[in-house]
Design brief:
With about 140 residues, the protein is an alpha+beta fold. The protein starts with a strand and ends in a 17-residue tail after the last strand.
Length: about 140
């Protein structure tokens, strides 16, 4: 039975119907196209005018469905996957991350202070900023 997985791709959050077999998440090609815009074509995996050649189709397509890990690998993007929670996140491509690291400029983000007022990193460009992060895990 196809049950949705929440897929986070940048700012987009999409619920995609998938099949989960042996810990692998598989997406029907039509759901992949309607959900995140990638389409399997004879020339490769395409989104708009951009096509990525699929040199080993068996790593991407299994039983007629697209393997999510194979998709992330083909696009050179990291994948965080929690099958039990039915959630996945596809990260920024390696080339884009490398360009950000070379520029030494942190991506902009906004967070609330203790009073709920939003502060963006871009508001403090050119100043020294100390960020303290905590995670419960």
């Amino acid at each position: 039975m196809n049950r949705p997985v929440l897929l986070i791709d940048g700012e987009k959050r999409i619920e995609l119907p998938v099949e989960i077999r042996d810990g692998a998440v598989r997406i029907a090609p039509d759901a992949l196209n309607s959900g995140i815009g990638w389409e399997l074509k004879p020339e490769g995996l395409c989104r708009g005018e951009v096509c990525v050649r699929v040199s080993d189709p068996s790593r991407l397509v299994v039983d007629g469905e697209v393997d999510l890990r194979g998709l992330a690998d083909l696009l050179d993007r990291p994948l965080a996957l929690d099958v039990a929670e039915r959630a996945a996140a596809i990260g920024t491509p390696r080339a884009a991350r490398a360009a950000q690291m070379e520029s030494l400029e942190a991506p902009d983000f906004s967070l609330p202070d203790l009073d709920g007022n939003l502060h963006s990193l871009s508001q403090h460009r050119g100043k020294k900023v100390l960020l303290i992060a905590h995670a419960s895990w």
